[in-house]
Design goal:
By secondary structure, the protein is α+β, with helices and mostly antiparallel strands. It is built from 2 helices and 3 strands; from the N terminus they run H-E-E-E-H. Helices cover 15% and strands 10% of the residues. One of its GO terms (cellular component) is nucleus.
Length: 113
């Protein structure tokens, strides 16, 4: 009686140990990923914020409106669409503003009496 050995599976080879103990859990990771894992995370610095405009000393904010502290005139002020340029221009022409600079060389015209 002869045994048929063709249907038997070939013997399996024993599993190979990892080549380097540090690579045991890192199989399938590229060298770039290794570098990013091994190096400490870089701390991202925040962009410095801009100082508030000097216009806010002379105006009071209410929702999306700004009111002049001197003449009580109301202006639109929104961070995205309405900046502070119009507020600063108003301060130059506001007659009730005590800090307004008047050009001494500029002559004023008096109309009628």
């Amino acid at each position: 009686m002869q045994l048929d050995t063709s249907s038997q599976a070939p013997p399996q080879a024993p599993p190979r140990p990892p080549q380097d103990p540090t690579q045991a859990g890192n199989q399938g990771i590229t060298s770039q990923e290794k570098d990013s894992q091994s190096s400490p995370k870089e701390v991202l610095k925040r962009k410095p914020t801009r100082a508030p405009s000097s216009a806010w000393i002379h105006f009071t904010r209410e929702n999306n409106r700004a009111t002049c502290n001197y003449c009580k005139k109301i202006y639109a002020c929104n961070a995205t669409s309405h900046g502070t340029t119009n507020l600063l221009k108003h301060l130059r022409t506001c007659e009730k503003n005590p800090n307004r600079e008047i050009d001494k060389k500029q002559k004023t015209i008096v109309l009628g009496k």
